[in-house]
Amino acid sequence: MSSYVRRKTPGDTEWFVHDRFGMFIHFGLYSMPARHEWIKSYEMISEEKYDTYFNHFNPDLFDAREWAKAAKRAGMKYAVLTTKHHEGFCLFDSAFTDYKITNTPFGRDLVREYVDAFRAEGLKIGFYYSLIDWHHPEFTIDRFHPRRKDADAYEQSKNRDMKKYAEYMRNQVRELLTGYGKIDILWFDYSYSWLSKELDEPWMRGKGKEDWESEKLIALARELQPEIVIDNRAEIEQDLWTPEQHQVLEWQRHEKTGELVTWEACQTFSGSWGYHRDEHTWKSPKQLIDMLVNTVSCGGNLLMNVGPTSRGHFDKRALDALNVYSEWMKYNSRSIYGCTMAEPEFTAPRGTRLTQSEDGTRLYIHVVEYPYVYLEMPDMTGKIEYAQFLHDGSEILFTEGYLAQVGDVKVPRNPDTVVFMLPEIKPDVIDPVIEVILKENR
Ligand code: GLC
After folding, report:
1. With 70 as the cut, is the pLDDT of residue 199 above it?
2. CA angle, residues 343, 345, 350, in degrees to nearest 5
3. For the whole model, what pTM was predicted?
4. Which of 51, 84, 371, 376 is deepest in the core (most CB within 10 A)?
5. Ligand 1 neighbourhood includes 190 CB (under 6 angstroms)
6. What is the pLDDT of residues 244-269, one digit of tens each?
7. Can you tell me whether residue 309 is helix, strand or coil?
8. Is any ligand 1 atom within 6 A of the Cβ of residue 37?
């Protein structure tokens, strides 16, 4: 069994750390301008102009079953959908606002269709819910708000009441957690109470747990769905640490106690979360696989984002990227599901990442930089029962304590070193995986 002990979490994270790989979906009105999901803030777009998107929102090609199938094919085991992003637009039929999808030409509750379709494919269901809201009339104007540069911004903002907004959030979270059956993840986003207090007009300060009344919000979520996995972005520690848009090099630890925590990296295929037509920094197939492998090798999960087009489908670039995962996971998923960081007794050879099955019986060497022929691994003699490539189940020969044999002469190596003999030509797969079946008594 894995010897790593994670800090205890209030929700049920057992399934979560087993499943390892999920799909993030950013969908909203911002999919129409297709210039980033922060567009309303970046371009300080007026309500009138933004209403054009609302009035014409009609993702006619949307089919939740296709989204769900694409996620499943890619090897993803759960999904997290933006039920409301910072723009404030709700993809569900909320009783507490008119600013919702059922009032657009589309007219359907997209969250409901998402839940039904993903559940039918056996995926776990997550809701992203934005704490920030650039539409709500009680949400005060701050440094991120689209109205921040209006000459009368202070006048507009001064009578707004964040308490009413906090109550609105509780009402909506109640709707989301009572109207759609069992919800597995609640992903709040995000707090910024750190935002420079000195530089700002005091009334433009950042927002955090006091503004959201996070304690009440989280208590409510726990009461309605006790096992739900909740992230830390409401500024109260819950289940999940969520490093964003970067790859960590080590298992994340608790800031105070140093304990290992449950964590999930979230990343995009290209720079933006929402559909961005003209953004061209799409990651290469190798980068996509490297991210997944690296994350699990550090004991984490990967939440990989798709931004559907405003017509409601995944564009070719997104499908191609998902396909990279499908192809790879078809043969290599055994090195991901139910796997975690390898035990400290194993040292990753240069150019590799290690994962290990939770039950400890199998070690996976992910060859991210392919060597010529020999792959040397220290402290391994006597531990291996059998080794094979995972993608085709072909045996990998290895020697213990010597490099190779010429006639009856052995070229010596440190007695503890195992040398794996790889084919000269790298097999035509990204990051080939060597599956090492370990001896029971080693
Ligand atoms: C950020 C952004 C947001 C995105 C999120 C995903 O906090 O504000 O647009 O949804 O990250 O992690």
Report:
1. no
2. 90
3. 0.97
4. 84
5. yes
6. 998 999 999 999 999 999 999 999 99
7. coil
8. yes
